[in-house]
Amino acid sequence: LGLPEKRIRVIKPRIGGGFGNKQEMMIEDACAHLTIATGRPVLMEYTREEQFVSSTTRHPMILKMRTGVKNDGTIVAHEMIVLSDTGAYGNHALTVTGNTGHKAMSLYDVPNIRFHARIVYTNKPSSGAYRGYGVPQGFFAAETHIERICREMGWDPLEFRLKNLVKAGAEHPMSKVWSEGRDAHGEVIQTNALPEAAAQGAAAFNWRPSGWDYHVVPGKPHLRRGHGVAFVMQGTAIPYLDMGAASIKMNDDGSFNLLVGATDLGTGSDTVLAQMAAEVLGCPVEDIVVYSSDTDFTPFDKGAYASSTTYISGGAVVRAAENVAEQIKRAAAAILNAQEGHASRNTHHTSRITHRDITLRNRQAIAPDGRFVTLEEVALHSLHHADQHQIMAVASYISPVSPPPFGAQFAEVLVDTETGQVTVERLLMALDCGKIVNPLTASGQIEGGMTQALGYGVSEEMVFDERGRCLNPRFDDYRVFRADEMPRLEVLFVETYEPSHPFGVKAVAEIPLDGVAPAVANAVYDAVGVLIPSIPLTPEKVWRGMKTTENLSRDEH
């Protein structure tokens, strides 16, 4: 635009989800130029067909897996070879593809790992950032591959995965050789409650019950039921790169203004960050007034991506709140010590107190002897009486680590053996995402992610001809699940305390994208004995897979 940054103000309104596509500058610059040229607001809107071919997509990949396993079920070698399609341009090509191996090859404790990737340009829409960021592709290949090993070797799929799972205290296998951010640094996995999550999930799901043949649907011999599972992990922010900042100011009435650059794209981050501040400051969340994403007065934030907001921006909020809390405690101690005769509101005391003795709770700064002053009294005293000053603080947060959340994804499907139609009846995800600040919004993230992943795994597919032209750029040919077609969704959190963060949190945003497709594919495998090696699991693919298996079986006999 040829303008200095100080003349540009970006205000983020309530605009719904991001999921990665807002990392790209697609048409914003054109709108800005037109606005400056005309002096009027400009709205530029893609048609549906333009939306399909001119925005970014998830990176299509072809993956090959090879694994060495001992007779006792111990994995000793794991290899993944990836061919990644970046489309016409190379945006995000390296980091997305690297992330595929960084997560999918780190879930199991394997002494020998090889990850090899090639990225190619094609005459198709550009691939870009999309929720999961390369990890769903990796886990579809890895977890269906693990399922095939279990089936062919006669091992229980849950027991085999748990036997080889990377444990808390182990080094993150890929962290010392590759990083999304700057130079790679070895990281230790400090928390992993996936064994407990898998056990609780299996119990709640009634995983493959032994007392009856769950495959059979009474009165409907053409239908077969199957159960599938996939273990997954993700990351939390990007180490040594992501930074968030926060500013907190105390108001006259004892409320607080919280300024953050973090962007709430329907993630609930405004609410969660306010909760974290309220917890430290001893006030209800309603007393935290959040201002976010205005480049003229909110602090810097790297952005709402990489499952980082609660961890990174929340870390900045906690630091700023702790600074403000200490100022409040010092002011409260001075007020209480200065009270005439140190008279309590309910008793008599003469001992001096320090800020270390003060507790913030219920809008009050409370001394050990029961005396207290309200936060409003502290605010008025600091602004208008002794040692007048504004109670406020600014803080930043950057992390040297990316603690992984873990999840066990369970799926139940019905397969119509006459048509190949796959109906997903139930999805349950049991997770270790550290401490959960807001169970309602966190569950919403997981349910929304499973819903998104359901389309990715079962129905959504862009079809191209040999020249790279999209053949189905509209919703009558591109199949998206409706709300009334959703299966039963369940979420279980098994909490741990992640020691790298003051609130013990880990990510929740992207991990629900990772396990649905392989769990559904494994459930189809369980139902009809056919492992479909590509997604989406369309009726045609499943039907052809069953027919191929039938023909092979006839040939063998």
Walkthrough of the structure:
By secondary structure, the protein is an alpha+beta fold. The protein has three domains: 5-54, no CATH class; 61-172 and 189-236 and 402-556, Aldehyde Oxidoreductase, domain 4, CATH 3.30.365.10; 243-398, Aldehyde Oxidoreductase, domain 4 (2-Layer Sandwich), CATH 3.30.365.10. It is built from twelve helices and 14 strands. Strands 4-12-13-14 form a four-stranded mixed sheet. Strands 7-6-5-11 form a four-stranded mixed sheet, with helices on one face. Strands 1-2-3 form a three-stranded mixed sheet, with helices on one face. It is globular. The relative contact order is 0.13. The mean pLDDT is 94.
Features:
31% helix, 12 helices, alpha+beta, 3 domains
Q: Could you tell me the mean pLDDT? A: 94
Strand ordering within the main sheet: 4-12-13-14
CATH topology of the largest domain: Aldehyde Oxidoreductase, domain 4
**How many domains comprise the coordinates?**
3
What would you call the shape?
globular
Structural class determined from secondary elements? alpha+beta
Count of helical segments? Answer: 12
- What do we call the CATH homologous superfamily of the largest domain? Aldehyde oxidase/xanthine dehydrogenase, molybdopterin binding domain
| Poorly predicted sequence stretches spanning 5 or more consecutive residues | none
How far apart the termini lie comes to 72 Å
Helix content: 25-40%
Element-by-element helix/strand order: HHEEHEHHHEEEHEHEEEHEEEHEHH
Question: Radius of gyration from the CA trace?
Answer: 27 Å
Main CATH class of the largest domain: Alpha Beta
Number of strands: 14
In CATH, the architecture of the largest domain is: 2-Layer Sandwich
The largest pleated sheet is described as:
4 strands, mixed
User: Could you tell me the strand content as a percent range?
Assistant: 15-25%
